[in-house]
Amino acid sequence: MSNQEVAILNVGGLMFTTRASTLQRFPESRLARMVNGNDHEFRLVNGQIFVDRDGGLFSYILDFLRTLQLSLPTDFSDYQRLQREADFYELDSLADLLSQENLLKPRLEILEVRFLLQETQGFFRVFGSCSNTIEVLAGRITVFTQQSLRQNWNNNPFPSQKLVTPLPLERPSHHDLVFQCGTDYSAGDQLVARYVSIKPDNRKLVNGTNVLGLLIDTLLKDGFHLVSTRTVSCEEKVECYSFERMKRPEALALSASQNPESTSGAQMLTPRHKRK
Q1: What SMART domains does the annotation carry (predicted)?
Q2: Cβ(58)–Cβ(16) under 8 Å?
Q3: β-sheet bridge partners, residue 194
Q4: What is the model's pTM?
Q5: Which of 43, 47, 52, 120 is most exposed, with the fewest beta carbons within 10 Å of its own?
Q6: DSSP letters spanning 69-104
Q7: Measuring CA to CA, how many Å separate 220 from each of 135, 178, 198, 226, 260?
Q8: pLDDT values of the chain reduced to their tens digit, one per residue, 276 residues
Q9: How far is the C-alpha of 230 from the C-alpha of 175, rounded, in Å?
Q10: Rounded to an integer, what distance in angstroms lies between the CA atom of residue 80 and that of residue 98?
Q11: Strand partners, 239
Q12: Sequence-separated (6 or more) residues with CB below 8 Å from residue 46
């Protein structure tokens, strides 16, 4: 079969259509011999190759052949069965990736939001077990500051696009960030207002309770679950909101080359998850 031809496989009753070149990507594999007609156990019948194996697991194998990366859904647990299928098709590179099961399994991610409301100001501190999540969240949160006379603020408490200046967030460590919002009247007649915007929402909010609501809504949309709320300090009334989510495993991928079987090892790439 030419590598430009379309190959149709019936794997355990599930139909798969792909290019022959995809199945020939690892020349020493059983799939390559199957397509080339060099494996006598498999025959081309009515334009299809029937394989008496698990069709559901074969979908992950075909995805690996197409992308040279292994990406599994969060709730996947059949690592040993998938490795057995990789051994059957003699895909040693895939079997090696599956042996790194500890890197493929989803992990519990914990995030905590602490909120303190003092008069007209709201103070936030966000802790996260995953530094990448905090980094992404910091890139979505912007604090703007605006100075005006108290009289002008009473007449127009909404930010002017021309006068609002962005401020950098405080990052005490890779695992937390600090910011605040609200108004400060401590400078006499000069009032300092801090607004917070959280992408993709374009609003600039100055009220601490409103910012807290937007932050919680953002985290829930990102897949976090609110698991508990408590008061950390009764005197200062610091509210603590705890979130959890299962962090999707990163995709394990092979270095691209003309001969994938000659690849010396695997490397971590940016996560890509098509299945949810």
Answers
A1: BTB
A2: yes
A3: 145, 182
A4: 0.60
A5: 47
A6: EE---TT---HHHHHHHHHHTT-HHHHHHHT-HHHH
A7: 17, 20, 13, 8, 40
A8: 554 588 999 999 999 999 999 999 999 999 999 888 888 888 777 878 999 999 999 999 999 999 988 888 877 888 889 999 999 999 999 998 888 766 667 788 999 999 999 988 999 999 999 999 999 999 999 999 887 755 555 555 555 544 567 888 999 999 999 999 998 866 556 778 899 999 999 899 999 999 999 999 999 999 999 999 999 876 778 999 999 998 766 666 665 443 454 544 444 333 333 333
A9: 21
A10: 8
A11: 115, 231
A12: none
Contact in structure between 260 and 94 (CB atoms under 8 Å): no
Taking the CA atoms of residue 146, residue 150, residue 154 and residue 159 in that order, the dihedral angle to the nearest 10 degrees is: -10
Q: Which two tokens stand for residue 51?
A: 């394989």
Classify 146 as helix, strand or coil.
strand
SS3 letters across 4-30: CCEEEEEECCEEEEEEHHHHCCCCCCH
Map out the domains of the chain as residue ranges.
6-105+249-268, 108-247
Residue in the structure block whose two tokens are 């200046």: 165
Helix H or strand E segment including 128: strand 121-128
| Residue 220 parent element (H or E) | helix 208-221
